[in-house]
């Protein structure tokens, strides 16, 4: 384990020394754009260090719920909120699926128990790609 202050952490990320960053998201587009700092219509947000994280890390993994509380898409063809980073997301992990962001589009890799591809697709605006049968991931 290692402890360091925020100045050192930002030096590491800005210097390209971090391989992977995992952060939350509000919206992700099919081409890997990330919006995670402002809810546009409510004017609520804070830039923070997310822009440094997505531009400095070699791989970006976004974790979030698959849809909003109002059951609106969070994985979109195009983000509606202001962007944190463009074409920066490599993987999306939600409460119901694991999806890789590729040059071909969004490739579904894993699905939560009691869910199927059609159910996940219904809650995802862009078309999902199946290259091989998605694994069902374990929840312990």
Note poorly predicted spans: none
Structural class: alpha/beta
Strand/helix succession: HEEEEEHEEEEEHEE
Number of domains: 1
Basic shape: globular
Q: Largest sheet, if any?
A: 7 strands, mixed
* CATH C-level name: Alpha Beta
Task: Determine the N-to-C terminus distance.
Answer: 25 Å
Q: Can you say what the CATH homologous superfamily is? A: Glutaconate Coenzyme A-transferase
Give the C-alpha Rg.
16 Å
What percent of the residues sit in helical stretches (DSSP H or I)?
10-25%
By DSSP, the count of extended strands is 12
Query: Please, what is the average pLDDT?
Result: 90
Give the assembly state of these chains.
single chain
| Percent of residues in β-strands | 25-35%
CATH second-level architecture: 3-Layer(aba) Sandwich
Number of helices: 3
CATH structural fold name: Glutaconate Coenzyme A-transferase
SSE layout and pairings?
Elements: H1 6-14, E1 20-24, E2 27-29, E3 34-35, E4 38-39, E5 44-45, H2 50-56, E6 59-63, E7 75-76, E8 91-93, E9 97-102, E10 105-111, H3 117-122, E11 128-129, E12 135-136
Parallel strand pairs: 1-6, 2-7, 6-8, 10-11, 10-12
Antiparallel strand pairs: 2-3, 4-5, 8-9, 9-10
